[in-house]
Amino acid sequence: MQSKPKREDLLVTPRQKALFKILSESGATEDGEDADGRPFKDAPPYGMTVMLDMTLSSSPDEDELADVLCWGDSRSREQARPLARKILKLIHGDGSAPA
Fold first, then answer.
1. What is the DSSP string of the chain?
2. Residue 58 domain-assigned?
């Protein structure tokens, strides 16, 4: 019988681990349900880390990244902008989106 993978096992690349660290240090948490339907609250941001990693593969600009961080809620975009800049700086060194 194979045991269920741990959520932290989802993070396999250095970029994913760096994103998780940035999100965790910024106080990001997740609410939802696990695969067995059990609710959880204020869990570490593993899901958002994987979503951000996929988003970064499409070379987003700051606005697009901020939209992902605030789940498309435009009222929260300005609050998400500093974190988006920090992530872009990590990925591109200068905070810009690639040309």
1. -PPPPPGGGG--SHHHHHHHHHHHHTT--EEEE-TTS-EEEEE--HHHHHHHHHHHTT---HHHHHHHHTTT-GGGHHHHHHHHHHHHHHHHSSSPPP-
2. yes
